Structures are given as structure tokens and as C-alpha cells.
Records
---
Amino acid sequence: ASPGAKGALLIPTHGYVGVTALTLAAMDAARKLYARFKSETGAIRISTLPNGRVAVKTSHATWEADRVVLAAGSWSSHITVEGADTVPVKPIRGQLLQLQAAPGAMTRVVWGPGGYLVPWVDGSVLVGSTVEDVGFDESHTDEAVTRLRDMAVSLVPSLAAAPTSEVRTGLRPKGPDDVPMLGPS
């Protein structure tokens, strides 16, 4: 622990999830219930059809379905949904690091004033994350990498020796009130 720590709060039930693995598992479960997926198709318009079905138009094709899930994240506002207002989201860039510590070097999620650390069983530690309003720029910056590494070491000094194994950047969708937008349209 950091010698500068003045206190801590232990939350034994605090957990974390591998987002990619969770998403793939959810898709697999949906497929078993006969859902079909079209991804990375560049949807540009969703409209209703006279027979109660829905059409999804891309730049290359149009598909029909009984229902459609709009899950385009930061790009949702670029898709026209017939009869609905534009989805009011914008992208917020988040940068994070993955450090490679020794397995078991950390066993708990740690939060601090400048971010958080998430340990994995293999010793990797996710260090996150930035919150940047820079449009659709998914590049990472040396400044953010340095800030995140410094924050990690300030929380857990032993991470100073952990090499950076990966830098990740993604875009989070930000709505007008910072809560998820879920529900039928």
C-alpha cells in the first residue's frame, strides 16, 4: 500500500468483469434463443415497415427483422431512427494501461483520487482511466500514459517495476445525464 494513504475502505463484494468475454457469452446465449447478429455493417437508418417489421439500412444492404437492438455506442447519433429523435450521445475517450505484475501481487480492486487498478489472476493490472472530450479520436497520448502509470505507482508502489504490456483506448457514449439509455423506441 502507499505510504501516503490516510485510510481505506474494504468492499469485499467489489468485483469486475472481462467486458469482451461477457459480451461474447451474452451473444452466445442470445444465439441459442435464435437471435442473429450483424456487426460492423455501418447502419445508417432504422425504419418501420408496413408489416410491423423493422428495416435496417446500411450503405451496402438492407435487412428486415422483427426487432432491432441499436447498440452503436458513441456512434448511435449517426443512425437515423424513423419517428425518433436523434440519440443524444457523444464520444468520450478513455485511455487505460495494462501492467504486468507478478501473479498475486494485487488481489483487490483499488480506487484512488486519480483512477483505479483492477488486478487479474495472471498478474496483469488494468490502470484506468482517462475521461476526455476529444471527439472520435481513439489515439492514446504519452501524457495520459505517464499520468496513469504515476497514479498506479502512487496507489501501489510495487507497480513501479511492472512493465506496461498494453495501452488501450476506447470511446464511451456520453448521454445528456450520464446514465445508460435503455428501452424500446
---
Amino acid sequence: MTDKKIKKDMRVLVACEESQAVTIELRKLGHEAFSCDLLACSGGHPEWHIQGSALKQFDKGWDMMIAFPPCTDLALSGSMHFAKKQADGRQKASIDFFMKFVNAPIERICIENPLGIMSSIYRKPDQVIQPYWFGDKSQKSTCLWLKNLNLLEPTNIVEKGEFFEWIDKKGKKKKQPLWYYEALKNAKTNEERSTLRSKTFPGIAQAMANQFPKPTKQLKLDL
């Protein structure tokens, strides 16, 4: 029996990515990667960007997809707003959108999201990673749901990074990663705040580009 060879250079759709962080790392390695988002790209390479709905790109002959569906209505960090979002249908729409990536007709898929309700509504993630596993001194629990891909292996474990502490209006002590606090502080709009919080850390982008295109441990090359 002969198994299908893994292509050395792959066609990769990086869905819901305006920053092009992963796309650029894949391009450095010779892969035909394209970011896709409703927003214009901020990574400096519009020639590698498809502006529009990623859902319309599924049938374009991709070998792999790395997807970053919006987490605003799904992340546990926003649970205080869940009741309102459930009532007006926003959360259901976000769940349905997430599941379209799960069911996309692409052989190898990675879906990224923070800790959130998809772990119970869909299934537990295959892996929960941290930026400080890959050389970035920051903490952000990041879930990965994988199809025909190996788990990411840490490349450079460093310190977890600084935290910002403050007292809220109710007198309770609060604490969050400094990078997250600064993203909230520097953003001028909710849309900008969401974009800054969701950007992929450089080390994770490099690990995805270097490790995901390789054959999975379950697949064999032709002998």
C-alpha cells in the first residue's frame, strides 16, 4: 500500500488574518501562503492577501488552512456579556462561523482561539499553548484544534513576562498580562482593541510555519 506524499511546498490559506504574521513566515519557507480577512492587511504584502470572506476560499485547492476565527463572542474573558450576546444571536452566529472552519473540505487544518466556550460546544482543543514557549515573554492561553497536524513543540521557553496590577472601582485587585493591558489602553475603538488583542505572537507564527507543513507522525512517505 502506498501512502500519499506530503508536498514540500504547500498552498496554505491563513484565514481571518490581517496581520499576515503566519503568512509571512510561511512565505519565507517557500510556501504559497495567502492571508484572508474582511479587513485590508497590515503586514505590508497586499499581493499575498485576499480581502473578503474566507468561507468563499475553501474550494481553491489548499493543502492546509490555519484559521483564526473571531473570538469576541466566544472567549471566556468576555463571559460577562454572554447573556446579551446569546439573546441577540451574536454568539450563535460566531459558533456557526467557527464550525464552518472545522468542517472545511481541506486536508490539514489548524483552528486557533483563546480559552472559550468552543471547548465544550465543539470539543476540547488538541493543545493549549503559550507565547513564552516560543520565545515571547508573554502569557496568553491559546487553544489549537488540529486536523491531520502534529502538536506544536516548544522552541524556546522563556519567562512568562510582566503583569499589570490595579484596583478596580469596587476595590478588587486586578491583574493581567502587561501586553494585554497595553493593547486595551492604546486602542481607540473596540474594533482596534480586538485586532490588537488577537495578533499572533512572532514565535508562535514561526513555529506554525516551521512545524505544521511537515508530515504528521501518522502519515508515511512513499518508499
---
Amino acid sequence: SWVAGDGKSYTLEPLVRWEAEQDLNQAACGGMHRLTALAHAIAYRKRLSQPIDGGWAVAQEKIDWAIARIRSYQNSDGSFSTNHTTRPGTSADLGVQISSTGHTLEFLAFALTDAELTEPWMMRAAERLCTLLESTIDYDLECGGLYHALNGVRLLRNRLQAQLPKNSQ
């Protein structure tokens, strides 16, 4: 908790609740930034061994809901929906595919458990994203989507490497 300039005392719990209650469809990048922030907040709370109740429980429910939607809307080629958590979708624009799959993979790399990261649907998404990145190496891509794609792959790689025995890294 902290005391703001207005003299009022604040805590993170109502802020987390407010964020979790927002409409992802009205947020930038399909709400993936908002979901990533919520996943960070929940992970921090768990590291402190604090209960996931109140606004924290609302955030966890939103994260779980989003993961289920993302998984159910995953395209047959492994990419994630260009409509994020709204409905299934794809695009002929490889930059759009990289952006949507990259943003989504980045969120999932924070939100999923170690065991969930290695599930076949996640590996298909990572492989598809790498294929998309390789196929567009000679094209100018929008830097935001590209950044999130590369960061998502990096985060996933780092988490997977951390699961390996120390002598095999």
C-alpha cells in the first residue's frame, strides 16, 4: 500500500481488479498487453505466497479465460488468431500474423506453468512463429509486432532452458 499525493491510501488489489474487468476487445493489441501485465501481477503475488483472492482472483479468472479462448481459436498451422480472444481468424498479411501470434505467445510465456509451456499446442505456435519470422527476413515489418514476436520467442526459450538440468544447458 502507499499514500498518494492526495493523502489517500491505495493498494494494488483494486487496480488489478479494475484492469481485469476491462474489455479486452477495446484494448490495444487484442488486450495482450493488459493480460501480460495481469500475468506479471499474479506471478508476483504468488512469489510472495500471498492469497489469490478478491481482485487477484478476478485477474486469475480473466487470465484463465483468455488462455482457454486463445487455445480454442488457435489456427491449424499453429499461429494464434488475428482476432486474439474475440473469435478465430487469420490474415494473408504475414506481418499481422507475426504481430498477433507474437503478442499472444509473449503473454502465454508469462502466464502458463512450466508444464503447459511444453504442450504440443504451444510448441506448434512457437514453430509457426519462427517459420513466419524466417519467411519475412527480407521484408520491412512493423517494429511493434516484430518486437513482441521476438520477445515472446526469447521468453519461451529462456523458460524452457530453465527447466533443463544444469549440465545439459
---
Amino acid sequence: GEYYYHGFTCLLDNLQAAFLDVKLRHLPRWIERRRAIAARYQAGLFGIPGLTLPHFPDPRMEEVFQNYVIRTPRRDALFEYLKAAGVETLIHWRKPYYKHKALGMDGQSFPETESISREVISLPMNVEISDEEVDYVIDSVRSFFELKAES
């Protein structure tokens, strides 16, 4: 898609704020589940050549894994392969923001940003996903990379 204008702030009404107040009580448990899913992905996907996982051993930071974003130069082929296998993934940044004409940044070049935009994809990550579903995603990603290794 193309970026045309800046967004705007929408404040919650009282009813929406009350719903959020109830949901926030579950947040610590949801974060722990996301971390458990991420750990399962890491264990299952570790060591695949050409695949970068979002785990950085820095004790100053704790990731909540709103998304589980992996990186591979074969992102588009992986996206299509997983789609055919029934695995829904997300590609958040098909086009770097600075390349949207409305921002007026023509002539700029950020090679790492462009590389990231071509290579990142988010695997399923939500608190309702089961361990069996996570394992299916892992098996599907592994089979994609194994097919390429065999050819």
C-alpha cells in the first residue's frame, strides 16, 4: 500500500476503557504465554541456515513478543509456501516508510531498511495458539528450508 497522510489520535470512550481495564488484568499471563510460544519457535527453528530468529541475549531487555518476526532472503517464497500449508503469516513492511511519496524523502537510501523490508515475516503469535499449532508452523518452516537444501 501507499502512505498518503499522517494518522490521528483516537481516545477511548468510557465503555472501551472499562473493557480494557478488565483485559489488562490478564496481561502478565498473556505475556508469559507469548514468551513460551517464542521459546518453542526458537527451539524448533534454531540452526536453519539462512533464517534469522528474533532472540538477542541481552539481560537488560525482556521481549514480550507482540510479534514473532523471522528474517530470510527467501521471505516471499516462504510466505507463499506457508500460505499453501494453511499457515497465516504477516508481512508488515513490504515497502520502507521513507519510500512513500507523501513523506517527500525522494533520493534517500537506507540499504539495511530496504533489506529488512524484503526479508522479514511474522509467524503466528497469539495467546490462543496451541503448542500443536506452533509445532505445525515449525514443521512447515523446516520443510520449506529442507526442500531448498535438497534441490
